[in-house]
Amino acid sequence: MKIIGHRGCGADRPENTAVSLQRALELGVDGIEVDIWPTKDEGFVLVHDADICSLTGTQGWPIHLTKTILQQIDVGARFGPGYEGERIISLEKALEIIAGKIEVFLELKRTRHDEESVGWIEPRLADLLRAHGAVPWTVVVSFDHRALQALKSYAPEIRTGMLYAGEWLNLWDEVALLAPDMLLPHWAQTTRALVHRAHAQALEVLPWIVNQEYVLERLVDVSVDGVVTDFPERCALRLAAMGTQQRDNKEV
User: Fold this and answer.
1) Per-residue confidence at 166, pLDDT binned at 50, 70, 90?
2) Residue 191, Cβ neighbours under 10 Å: how many?
3) Residues 29 and 239: beta-carbon distance below 8 Å
4) Phi (first) and psi of residue 165, to 5 degrees
5) Whole-prediction pTM value?
6) Residue 3 burial (C-beta neighbours within 10 Å; 0-12, 13-18, 19+)
7) Is 2-34+100-251 in CATH node 3.20.20.190?
8) Among 23, 43, 77, 112, which is disulfide-ready with 9 (CB 3.0 to 4.6 Å)?
């Protein structure tokens, strides 16, 4: 089962920062999930929320700020002692750190108030991934399924994943329309029937955010392909222990 570090190693390092990505690599995770926001000057930075207030104490939307301004912001000081000076980083910097060592999941954030002003996002992202040779080890995921559709139409070689939560009239109609490579449902909506049908269509299932042991155990039981977690080290230890328990039970 894949272990995907959420926001890098976001529980014990400032999320989406260089040190967070490096810590996830040190732990030997199978993949890293990071959040990318488009910027005013048509770049991308690693930020989770639409407003940077939770990281900085100052209000501001990444999509209305330049990459240069955002990269000057210290997001480590509020996290805790020893992380002062950690900055918001660009997508280019994140790709340089990961460098194909493991799989990376890019959660694309975007705001569609004005289609004309954001039409550059998917082509620019695809071109950036191509330029860095990152397409083979990258998956673009999003709650914005229209963004995934736009990306696929421009760059069909890029793998995509449908993030979702909530109730659906027909999830599988959306899957048929978007043709993703994987599904990323909320863990509470991840059932044996869902996994079975997804696997029948050659789709991976990677639930989020899996931080509790009982949730992890339940997901192992329904045969998911991996989990997105804030605690990759803890998750790996629990999976190892579960494997030992299963072997012991078979021997008995």
Assistant:
1) confident
2) 13
3) no
4) -150, 165
5) 0.93
6) buried
7) yes
8) 23
